[in-house]
Amino acid sequence: MSANAAAEGATKPKSNLIKIVLIVVAVLVLAGGAAGGTWFFMKGGSHAKGKDTHAEAAAGDEEDDEAPSSAKKPAPIYMALDNMVVNLADPGGDRFAQIGVTLELGDEKLGEQIKQRLPAVRSSILMLVSQRTAEELLRRDGKDKLAQDIVMEVSRVAGLRTPRPIRTEGEGDKRPLTQRYAGPIRAVLFASFIVQ
User: What is the mean pLDDT of residues 152-171?
Assistant: First the structure.
C-alpha cells in the first residue's frame, strides 16, 4: 500500500503543474488573440481597406450627389421604434402582424426631428401596414414595398425631401438585403416581423 501511495503522491504534483501550464498557455493565447484583433480593427486591415476604397470609388461613379469617395462614411445612426401590432386587411379580420421597425438615419438631428413627430410617424406606419394582407407581407417583394412606403411616409410626416432609391449593380437575380436611399432616411430595417 505504501508503494501505491508514494506513486499517487508523485503524479499529483505533476498533474497540478500540467494544469497550471495549460491555464497559463490558454490565457496567453487568448490575450494574444485579443491584442491582434484590436490591432487589426484599429488599423483597419490594409487588404480590406483596399477593397473598400475600390468599392467606394465605384459607388462614387454611380451617384452624383453623394459624398466623394475619399471622405470617410460616418457611422450609421439607427432609431428603433417600438414594436407594433396591427390587424391586417385580410377578409374576416382575423390576421395580424407584429413588426419592429428600425430607421437608418443620415444624422442625429433627424432623429430628434422624428422623435418630436413620433406619434404621427407611428400612426402612419400602422396605417400602411393595416392596408396590407398577410399574403402580401409574407412575400419578399411585399416587405420591400412596405419598407419603401415607410421611407416615403416617414419623410412626408417629418417634412423631409422625398428620398430616391440608390441603384445597385445587380448580380443576376440577386437583390440587396436592404434597399438604400439617398436622403435623410437611408433605410428601413425590420427588427422583427411576425404575421399570424
Answer: 71
